[in-house]
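Bug #77: duplicate submission created two jobs. Keeping one. Sequence:
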Amino acid sequence: MSSHKVHNVSSVPIDGFSNVRITSVWTFLMSVQWSEPWLLGLLSFHAVCLASTLLTCRFYKLQICQFLVMVAMVYSAEYLNELAAMNWRSFSNFQYFDSTGMFISLVYSIPLLLNTIIIVIVWVYRTVSTMTELKTLQLRRRAQREGRKKTE
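Kept job's structure:
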């Protein structure tokens, strides 16, 4: 018996738009017809999300709300994928929404998760900055106390 696994080329999906075999994430993204209005709207939504993430860096409570909303949106991606798979004809030319959720993960969830990562990085930076300031103040007070004790 041979232990070789036969690679079935016919099992690799072919894109319906450009007839390219989809073998990687890049070829998958290149096979998407990005000129569809709903995809342009989705890209605009992600641009607005990124802009609001960057603009709200100084507003901690607002970023907490934004973070929670984005995490909830990622959590609901599975349900959104099912809904879009049932109704894709009403807004799209092609059926992008498969049972594995690859499309919605790539074009919807990952950009939202990148925004949440940016928010977490900002939070860590602010925490480290606050801790550094606190330690600096502690060292200054200790030095002042020691200076007072030496003069007495």
